[in-house]
Amino acid sequence: MFCEKAIEIIRELHRMGDGQLPAFNEDGIRQVLEEMKALYEQNQSDVNEAKSEGKSELIPTIKFRHCCLLRNQRCIAAYLYDRLLRIRTLRWEYGSVLPTNIRFHMCAEELEWFNQYKKSLATFMRSLGGEEGLDITQDMKPPKSLYIEVRCLKDHGEFEIDDGTIILLKKNSQHFLPRWKCEQLIRQGVLEHIMS
Amino acid sequence: MLTLTLLFTNFCDLTIDLFLHYFQRVALLVSSDIDALCACKILQALFHCDQVQYTLVPVTGWQDLGTAFLEHKEQFRCFVLINCGANVDLLETLQPEEDSIFFICDTHRPVDVVNVYNDTQVKLMIKQDDDLGVPSYDDIFRDEEEEGGDDSGNESDGGSEPSGKRRRYDEGEVERRIERQRATREWEARRREILFDYEQYEYHGTSAAMVIFELAWVLTKDTKDMLWWAIIGLTDQWVHDKITHMKYVTDIATLQRHVSRHNHRNEDEDNSLSIDCMRISFEYDLRLALYQHWSLFESICNSSYTSCNFKLWSMHGQKKLQEFLADMGLPLKQVKQKFNSMDMSVKENLREVIEESSNKYGMKDIRIQTFGVHFGFKNHFLASDVVHATASLLESTEKDDSPGDNFIKALDCLSRSNLERLHGGIDLAKKKLMAIQQTVASCICTNLILSQGPFLYCYLLEGTPDVKLFSKPMALTLLCKYLLKAFVRSTRNKRCKLLPLIIAAPMDVEKRTVIVLGIPPESETSDKKNFFGRAFEKAAESTSSRTLHDHFDTSIIELKMEDRTKFLDALITLLS
């Protein structure tokens, strides 16, 4: 049945809920594009035939194939767009440098798009707040205090904070650090915020 | 009104405000005992107030301390040591840079003389009225320039004179030199004696948590939570028998003043606080461990005071207990069920009823001054409950727990928001107390405690049930004290009642080591001073036994199993 492959790749993306980015399904997209190409060529020849020989009984078939083509196009567009939205949230979550395993899941064009998005966001942030710009990706929720207490959940090695001092993050050590420095590591699961 | 001024010795009036100006960041090295944990919590709260950045590192012994220091010495200039580091020459052990500063809040006494007299790098946090008994400077340290100056002066004088007179000066000079050498030898002998007397006995000073609470109070940043932690720190010293009864009562009085001050608002009928707020109250409560979270019967059976007085390891003792309960008119059914489910009529005057009956059975001090905390309708804890719970969490012997994990769990359970952890700790504590009771009963009944002459000795074999619990210092200390009390009660030998006790238990089965600890003799007026630290060191040296003196209390060591016998023999010879 036509358009089944398209639905399959959408289902696969939908299954990976919660903003995770699965690997780019090159194969699936290629198959759908091939299907679309085949349908288009068939339609092309049928249209020519219908025009030249006046075979009006081919028209429903042509309409049907056209619907399939539109359907496939819509599915692929939805797939690509959803992935782009997920990649955009990754920038807000992980910062400007993505972990390598996530980068492997993106195709070259998506990486290109990500870089462009990063640049746009950076330009925008620089334009705010006077001279130095304002980093709006921090403090997504209003912070209660400047410094927070964090506990180290795994050995992370050395970590540098704003004034240049280096902190050794060893398992089970606790630190009292500026909030903005810890947010990244808390999201990554290296540190745990302690509320007493 | 008493003025409680906090004196940092070495004549330097540094307070936490100056912390912020001099140092950006502080490394907190905290020992693994409850008092240190409480002090740490108070200090953390103070740091949060003033936004001092810090890093907290738990340490379990000297090696840990050394490693932690090496790891962090690049990044930190200011170190705060809690309950570790005072009784050893710190600068010699750690070899820090010139600009590193150490603030030490340690209850271990005697404080090493080098630490006391160091002007620049070591700052001790000790209360003004805590008498250290440190020998005076001139008795221990001597400037070496004094000797050189005299000689060179005489020589130059002698050299400029003509030869006749010079001979006379030479003789005078030789005499003076002999005199000086004799004086030096005398001074050195006296110095050795003074140092020996000073360092012979190990004991504990004021609770670290209380000292840091005083600091918070001086800075007017104290809160009820901090006061509660200070109370727990003091109660830990009492539960683990580190301070004398007099000192405990004095410190309780000090804390009582703070409690009254904080409770001032409760007395105002119109604006009284909500039931969910934390209230600390002074209690003259029973000396029964965990009795409000257990059944009364279990608590009586597993508390060392009652168990030793009744001698509950014997049939006779069990009968006496039944009589005692009958005398108070408490039905067995009531007494054996959970305390919270006992009838109100029974619970009403329970403390007074028990006190009256206990007096008849020779237990004059069944009640002890302590504090309790209420928050919400359900949550009521005595300070000793929290101490037992935290100690069990800190020394938990579950498989996957590393010492670091245990430290974090114990630290967490001190916060009021982690009640499940506290209840978990109470359950573990119940198991520990039952294990201690059973071990004591079996040791007494099988006569496992033997007199070796100058001391009593007990060795827990590897197959003993729950012996894993006793591979940890605090649990083993509790067992040891309980055992000695029980032994003194059960033996007829008058001389043995005055002896100290050494206990040994398997520590690490793979490495084949045992943990050995010694406690002073049991007596009403004991000053809790322990001489085993030095004795162990000397015995280990003389027999070249393979020992590890890693623990901050010098009376607790780790020893290789094979060297046990010769080590003991050396101790016997040493102490006879």
UniProtKB/TrEMBL annotation, chain A:
BP terms from Gene Ontology: DNA strand elongation involved in mitotic DNA replication
Residue stretches spanning the membrane: none
Keyword Nucleus recorded: yes
SUPFAM superfamilies: GINS helical bundle-like
Predominant subcellular localization, coarse grouping: nucleus
Leader sequence residues: none
InterPro entries: GINS_A, GINS_bundle-like_dom_sf, GINS_Psf1, PSF1_C
Occurrences of domain DNA replication complex GINS protein PSF1 C-terminal (ranges): 144-195
Keywords: Chromosome, DNA replication, Nucleus
Nucleus recorded as keyword: yes
Residues of the GINS subunit domain: 41-128
Coiled coil: none
Any one of the GO CC terms: GINS complex
Stored Pfam families: PSF1_C, Sld5
Compartment(s) where it occurs, according to its Swiss-Prot or TrEMBL record: Chromosome; Nucleus
PANTHER family documented for this protein: DNA REPLICATION COMPLEX GINS PROTEIN PSF1 (PTHR12914:SF2), PARTNER OF SLD5 (PTHR12914)
Role this protein plays: Required for correct functioning of the GINS complex, a complex that plays an essential role in the initiation of DNA replication, and progression of DNA replication forks. GINS complex is a core component of CDC45-MCM-GINS (CMG) helicase, the molecular machine that unwinds template DNA during replication, and around which the replisome is built.
Subunit field text: Component of the GINS complex.
Family to which the UniProt record says this protein belongs: Belongs to the GINS1/PSF1 family.
Protein name, per record: DNA replication complex GINS protein PSF1
Gene, per the UniProt record: gins1
Automatic annotation (TrEMBL), chain B:
Keywords: Cell cycle, DNA replication, Nucleus
Keyword Nucleus listed: yes
Positions of the UniProt region annotated as Disordered: 142-173
Cellular localisation: Nucleus
Acidic residues composition bias: residue spans: 142-154
Source domain of life: Eukaryota
GO MF, one annotated term: chromatin binding
Entry GO CC: DNA replication preinitiation complex
GO biological process, one term: DNA replication initiation
Main location: nucleus
Record has Flavoprotein as a keyword: no
Family: Belongs to the CDC45 family.
Protein name (Swiss-Prot/TrEMBL): CDC45 cell division cycle 45 homolog (S. cerevisiae)
Lineage of producing organism: Eukaryota, Metazoa, Chordata, Craniata, Vertebrata
